[in-house]
# Entry
Amino acid sequence: MGAVLAIAFGAASAGRAARIGVLIAETKASQSTRLDALRAGLLDAGYKEGQNTTVELRSADGRYERLPLLAAELARANVDTIIAFGVKALVAAKDVTDSIPIVIPATSSDIVAMGLIQSLA
# Structure
């Protein structure tokens, strides 16, 4: 969450609303707890959706073949960061951009061993 807030702060200090892309492999309902936690964390840090923060949410609804299209939509929307909920979402986001920071919440997969990231640091 700290990386998301740093990016949001950078956008806000530049005089514009932070644009946070959220890419979900599963359904929104299955990730509702995580989405609520994200929004609560942003609000606690002073980022109010619709005021100084915009959340662009894309969900594949379990249709993983849609992830590349949805990731590309977020990249075209010029989001400041992409939060990838799930390894499949992470892979899709990495495939469409190397300039937008991608954040992945805790995962049970070893994304370092999979070669998706260099380290957890």
In short: DSSP finds four helices and four strands in the chain. The first helix runs from residue 2 to 13. The CA atoms of residues 64 and 91 lie 11 Å apart.
